Backbone:
C-alpha cells in the first residue's frame, strides 16, 4: 500500500513539473505573451477509445469510450470535461465485471512544441452494473500528443472505492465546435 502511494505521488510530481516548466515562459516558440493574450478562445469536442490493464486485485483489463469537451483558455492551456463508459473485466469467476460512468473535470497544458501535453483530471465514477452500488473518487494524470484532429494519450486513473486503478491508452478524434 505504501509503495502504491509513493508511485502515485511520483507520477503527480513529474506531471506537475512538466506542466509548469514551459507554461510561464516569457516567449513560447517565438510567440509573445501579447499574441497569446489576444487568442480567440474556442471549444473542441473529442470522441475517444480507451484500453489498458487494470491494476488491482479483482480486475485485469479495462475498455471504454469517452467524450471530452475542451475549452481553450490560451493557445497552450485548456479546461476539460470528460464522461463516457468504462468496463473493467474481472480476473476471477466469482467476481462480476464492473461498468462505470466517469465524470471528470481537468486542466490540459501543452508543454513541448504545440503538440505534447500533460493533463490532470479529477471527478467521480458511478457504477452502473447490477452488483455494484458505489461511487468512487477518480484522479487521472496523463500525457499525450495532439494535432488538429488526432489525440493519442496515456493516463493513470486511480479509483479509490473500486479497489483498482488502470493505465489507459486513449485514441481520439477531435474537432473545433
Residues:
Amino acid at each position: 500500500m505504501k509503495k502504491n502511494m509513493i508511485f502515485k505521488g511520483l507520477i503527480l510530481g513529474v506531471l506537475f513539473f512538466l506542466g509548469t516548466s514551459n507554461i510561464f515562459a516569457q516567449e513560447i516558440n517565438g510567440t509573445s505573451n501579447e499574441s497569446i493574450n489576444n487568442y480567440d478562445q474556442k471549444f473542441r469536442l473529442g470522441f475517444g477509445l480507451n484500453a489498458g490493464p487494470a491494476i488491482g486485485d479483482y480486475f485485469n483489463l479495462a475498455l471504454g469510450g469517452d467524450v471530452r469537451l475542451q475549452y481553450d483558455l490560451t493557445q497552450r492551456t485548456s479546461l476539460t470535461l470528460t464522461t463516457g463508459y468504462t468496463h473493467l473485466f474481472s480476473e476471477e469467476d466469482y467476481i462480476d465485471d464492473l461498468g462505470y460512468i466517469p465524470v471528470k473535470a481537468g486542466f490540459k497544458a501543452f508543454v513541448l512544441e504545440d503538440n505534447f501535453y500533460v493533463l490532470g483530471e479529477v471527478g467521480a465514477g458511478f457504477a452502473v452494473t447490477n452488483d455494484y452500488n458505489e461511487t468512487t473518487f477518480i484522479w487521472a494524470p496523463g500525457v499525450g500528443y495532439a494535432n488538429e484532429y488526432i489525440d493519442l494519450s496515456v493516463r493513470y486513473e486511480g479509483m479509490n472505492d473500486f479497489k483498482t486503478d488502470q493505465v489507459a491508452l486513449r485514441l481520439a478524434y477531435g474537432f473545433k465546435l
Remarks:
- Residues 17-28 have pLDDT under 50 and may be disordered.
